[in-house]
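Tokens for chain A. Residues wanted.
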């Protein structure tokens, strides 16, 4: 018995939630997968700037995940999860007059926060003993970390005053990067889990 579930959740700069299901054969060229070796650059922000917004930029980032579960030859539940943080080019924008290194650093950390919560989700999923309710269990774990990500994104913007508070920006940079380093083993994003 095999089950696959695809969830795509989008997270915006001030948190916009949108879900969709998509086949893994479809490729979305508007998305950039998070990579330590590939930071954001201003040309990644291809969406039309919202001139009526009080914000100078909008980062549309989130977490995608796919999982399959099945019974192995020993009748134990096995789950295979692939999860990754992504940035949506077409939904992200910047007001050209506001472009600065500091603002880009702030937007990058929104993307990094999505990656951090992706790793939290994988860490929790890997350490969970799954039952016949594996779909609900994985979805529930994801929901917990998605909600924590939403909260972290809001806290980040409030604490840094959208990057205007340089001291708080530095604190957030250090905290998020420290946590990403602590969870480096979850960077490869694919795990094979079994019922213990």
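Reply:
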């Amino acid at each position: 018995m095999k089950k696959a579930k695809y969830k795509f959740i989008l997270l915006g700069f001030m948190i916009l939630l949108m879900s969709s299901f998509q086949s893994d054969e479809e490729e979305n060229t508007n998305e950039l997968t998070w990579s330590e070796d590939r930071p954001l650059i201003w040309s990644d922000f291809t969406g039309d700037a919202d001139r009526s917004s009080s914000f100078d930029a909008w980062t549309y980032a989130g977490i995608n995940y796919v999982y399959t579960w099945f019974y192995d030859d020993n009748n134990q539940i096995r789950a295979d999860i692939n999860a990754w943080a992504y940035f949506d080019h077409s939904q992200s924008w910047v007001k050209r007059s506001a472009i600065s290194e500091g603002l880009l650093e702030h937007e990058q950390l929104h993307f990094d926060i999505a990656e951090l919560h992706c790793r939290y989700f994988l860490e929790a999923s890997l350490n969970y003993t799954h039952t016949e309710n594996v779909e609900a269990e994985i979805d529930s774990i994801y929901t917990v970390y998605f909600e924590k990500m939403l909260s972290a994104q809001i806290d980040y913007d409030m604490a840094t005053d959208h990057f205007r508070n340089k001291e708080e920006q530095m604190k957030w940079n250090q905290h998020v990067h420290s946590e990403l380093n602590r969870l480096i083993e979850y960077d490869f994003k694919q795990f094979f889990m079994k019922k213990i």
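Confidence is low (pLDDT under 50) at residues 1-26, 190-196. The chain has one domain: 3-194.
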